[in-house]
Amino acid sequence: MSRDAINCGNFIKPRDNMAFDAIRIYPDSVLMERAGPVQNIDGQVKEIVDRMVEAMYANQAIGLAAPQIGIPLQIFVAGPENGWRGFINPEVLEGEGESLLEEGCLSLPNLVVPVKRKETVFIRAWDLDGKEMNLEVSGFPSRVYQHEIDHLHGKLIIDHISLLKRKLWIKKMIKDQKRSQKKSVIF
Description:
Elements (H helix, E strand, L loop, with lengths): L42 H16 L4 E3 L9 E4 L6 E12 L2 E7 L2 E10 L2 E7 L5 E7 H14 L10 H21 L4
Antiparallel strand pairs: 1-2, 2-3, 3-6, 4-5, 6-7
């Protein structure tokens, strides 16, 4: 199926019998692929967004991109409880200034890395009613939106660190996973 014509109906049911709130963890390939555009904002997209909001709050996050729950579509949600927003096909048009801050990610547990981002960004996206939004966002919300838009382009916070640090982190992650598997009891 072409990424240019993704049918949202294919993503309503969890793939591989996974719960919708199951966050995909690196190195899951869906996290490193460019998400496809949403062609039609309909009830199926709204259902995906509702499930994303549930997953975001269940995991105590402030943002979540569709690929993080295995749905390769250009959708993200962000915001505090009762104040979230859904963004469809978002893009950063331009940015100003720079700031450096440590970021974490649900898809990269136990990792916090310094990430340089634009201080202010101008974003175009569509809301759940299909209306175009043009926003100027600064400070922390700007950082959150840029982080989630990175997910839609297959870019993770580890892509912001040096190759050497990335290799060290991946080696540590594999070691930790093996250690936790040895502690697990399998029936």
